[in-house]
Structure formats: structure tokens, C-alpha cells
Amino acid sequence: MRKRLTIHSLLKMKQERNAISVLTAYDYPSAKLAEEAGIDVILVGDSLGNVVLGYETTIPVTVDDIVYHTRSVARAAAHTFIVADMPFLSYGASREATLLNAARIMQQGGAQALKLEGGAEIASDVEALVQAGIPVMGHLGLTPQSVHQLGGYKVQGKTEKDAQKLMEDALALEKAGAFSIVLELVTEPVAEAISKALTIPTIGIGAGRACDGQVLVYHDILQYSSPYFEKKFVKTYADIGTTIRGAIESFVGEVKTHQFPAEEHVFQPGSSSPAALYGGGAAEAGEQQSASGKSQRKEVPLT
Ligand code: KIV
Description:
Blueprint: H1 7-15, E1 20-24, H2 28-36, E2 41-44, H3 48-51, H4 63-76, E3 81-85, H5 95-109, E4 113-115, H6 123-131, E5 136-141, H7 147-150, H8 160-176, E6 180-184, H9 188-197, E7 202-205, E8 213-216, H10 218-221, H11 240-256, E9 287-289, E10 295-297
Parallel strand pairs: 1-2, 1-8, 2-3, 3-4, 4-5, 5-6, 6-7, 7-8
Antiparallel strand pairs: 9-10
Helix pairs in contact: 2-4, 4-5, 6-8, 8-9
Bound molecules: 3-methyl-2-oxobutanoic acid.
3-methyl-2-oxobutanoic acid is lined by residues 24, 43, 45-47, 85, 139, 182, 184, 205, 215, 217.
């Protein structure tokens, strides 16, 4: 079984030019599959507001939401480094509130690190969290919690002044003790300059090829949404939205036409114990672990 990465191994990955893979996950099955697939870091992002909870922005996401989702991710991914977002205004209002909210996400959620949006203006919060023993990931560029102030979801760092500000913010976060910084929707040359200037790894999302790692949103790479939606900085690795809709359409159709349940799905007197078909009976029911760690189910004989 592989060992969970640490902030020190992530730093070493940058030094060895070993690219860091980060994916968001928000629940048990998404985290389980991400871990089985070998992801380096799972981010319980407040993007859960958009992709899971149906909000238009990340602003309504609460500490309770993050704790709840982080807890299910932590149960699934015991061997993966888990970073959880501190949601909108759960930091920055007062030092005490920042520390208490952070404590909840670490203790009740089970994250190994927290991510905060913002630059020099939150450096003292970052410093306080690091002093309290909490690893902090920064987040610069397009910071969705400030979408209204930024005037929309726009690429950042396009002017000399913006690029300079991003560099100063990145250096301030590193100085405050952040172990890594997400760069979101930042032009490639600016992200490259920042990645070269920092000793800590940068993790890009729509920030080009020179970052030390890449992060994407689970639902984006899998098209786990409706309608099908492409973004320039995302690659679709599978279209499970279409697959799921098709499967549900088949179920609906088979129920309506009485094709489901069929003979093999029903119990007759003398067939095998139903207990073996549920939850704790997974092993009896035939769940097998392949050498690659992939879980495979085989059919359960009924007699
Ligand atoms: O909330 C999130 O998922 C994020 C990533 C997009 C970096 O912050």
C-alpha cells in the first residue's frame, strides 16, 4: 500500500521535477476512485458549491459543508494527502475565527492541509495557521470567492501591473509559510515566472505548462454534469454524464416494459442468503481486489 505524501515529499517532487497531480473530490466514491487511480493530492474544493450543491458561485459554501464532505473523502482516501478549502469569510474576519474554523475542518473533517484564497492581505492568517501546525496551500489568480470583486471569471495577470502583484502575493504567501500555491486562470508566462521564483510548488489550473503540478475538478474531467460543457483549460477524459443518463434511460425503459427485474434478479425459496448481497457481505458476495488494486465484482450465484 502506498504511503500518503507529505508537504516535504511535495517539495521534493518540485525539486526533482516530478509533476504533482491534484484532483478535487467531494464524497466517498469520488475519493476512492481518485486514490485507486494514483492521484497525489485530493482537494476538497469549495467548487463543491458549483458542481455538487448547485450554487452559482462558491460563496454560499459553509464550514459545515466542507467538514461534511471532507469527512467522507477522508474515509475513502486514507493513503492520499487531502487538502480542504476554507470557505468564504471563514478566515480573515478575525484571527480567532480563522483558527477555530480551521480546527473544525482539520479535526472533524480529517484534512491534512487547508487552502485559502488571497495574497499579501491574508499572509498573517497563513502565518498564524502555520504556527498552529496546519499546512497551508495558497490560491492566487482567479480566486472564485472574490468573483464579484474581480468582475467575473477572467484570466488574470494580463497586464504588467497585475503580473507584478501576483508575483508579490506569491512571494508573500511563501514567506508566510505556505507549502504550495494554486495558480488559477493565470497567463502561462506569469505562472512560469512565479513557479521559477518560488521554492514551493505551484499547482496550476488554467495556468499553463510550467507549473509544478496541475489540478482539475473531478466533475469537469469526467463531464459528470448536465449539459455537456467544455472549458478551454480542461480536458475531458471521460463522458460519464452521457453514460449515466443513458443508463438511467435504460432502467426507466425496462421498468416501464417489465423487462426489469428479470428471472436472475428475484429470490425464490431455497436461493442463497440475501444477507450476502449487501454492504458487509461484499466479500461473500464476490468482491475481489485485483493486483492493480481495482475492485471487480463478480456475479453472485443465487442457488
Ligand atoms: O475549489 C476548488 O475546486 C479549487 C480548485 C479549482 C483549485 O479551488
